[in-house]
Amino acid sequence: MSFVKTISTVRAGALSLALALGAGVAPAALLAPQAAQARSPESFADLAEAVSDAVVNISATQKIEERRGAQGFPQMGPGTPFDDLFEEFFKRRGQRGPGGGGNEDQPRTRKSSSLGSGFVIDSSGIVVTNNHVIADASEITVIFTNGQKLKAEIIGRDAKVDVAVLRVKPEKPLKAVNFGDSDKSRVGDWVLAVGNPFGLGGTVTAGIISARNRNIDSGPYDNYIQTDASINKGNSGGPLFNLAGEVIGINTAILSPSGGSVGIGFASPSSTVLPVINQLREFGETRRGWLGVRIQNVDDAIADSLGLGKTRGALVAGVDDNGPAKPAGLKTGDVIVKFDGRDVKDSRDLPKLVAAAPVGKAVDVIVMREGKEVTKSVTLGRLEDGEKMASRNGDDKGADSVGKSVTQTAMGMSFATLNDALRQKYQIKDSVKAGVVVTEVDRDSSAADKVQPGDVIVEINQEPVLNIDGLSSKAKAMKEAGKKTALLLVANAQGDVRFVVAPLN
Description:
20% helix; Pdz3 Domain; 34% strand; seven-stranded antiparallel beta sheet
């Protein structure tokens, strides 16, 4: 069995339609002279020959335990379509059905193998592939172009960027390839994909970079290189080369309605995976920087409400009590526009910048606060430590906030002060300590697609909301001051918060 991660076919169909509708041919007269004269490489043969020996096949074997009933027949659960068939089969032979007595069920282990790709980055025997290629593997075999097979051990793996580092022990130095800088690659650049599609090792395909910084909703560090070089099942973990023979990406996923290549493949860029690979080689685990904030994107409405002038930065929707950001003075409602000297264009930029920064480093974080730039120095923690603390504190209990059960209506919503009854009704966690519960949303209001009953308004225009009287008075004062919208900090029942812009009507 070979595989590559495949993205939703629904999206694929939509993309296909959009492309078909937008298809057209630019008149030659409109092309720049340089573009009209541009030529593709006459051959990729030299490049393929130079790098192919460093590309390997990965065979990952998993042990799967099965339970088999009497006579060695597979154990089947009740209510399956085969119940009647098997029952009749055993009656004819005077035997009991599977699991119906006789010999006790006995576990049986079978092996299941999957195929992927990888590449050598150190001649001593260091191999890189996707984490999903070797996930749950009990045995990993690396197969080279000359047919040599070597058992591999896992040095380290990371599911967040889907990368794994393996070690083999060769008798002599191996052919290795180097990483290039994916940030220097441009849309339209030629690339070469080498791998093991459908178990056909040593396959070379060529294409161009179709897009950069693609988000395919696979995790917090999405910024894939999109390519039309043919990538199929089994290509996962293989390298994407530039014309200099440098690895600028690891082929990871495809978007396809059929499971085969339709010219939309995705590679994790070297700028994302290389820092992780280096950490795995050095420590056997990741050591990502940690800021300790929850963020959301800044849309036009939020930018206008905060007076940012344009959409930019990452809006702080919450600050971890145990994280580095809190003692440094970062606050909910801050918009982070620069981190350690690098611009934060949108919320997707920040997790990647923070994760790549060394643990313990003091960095300057520039935020927009009340229309002014404010600089805060934050000593970064370790993300993995923060995740452990969050897991331990997940069940912590806080004090209930008891208030009036009176309901009022504003901004297309009905509200009531958070109390025990409402907390129980909407299963609101105790981490949401105070606020105003949304009990009803007008379907015709602009808030209908932003909030739902059970959400809790905890701030309005970055001021705490303790009860419905406080919410009403603040909303009234804003209307009298000529404001048309309000910036609400909204918590869901699980305690996750986000900013929402609602009209003051």
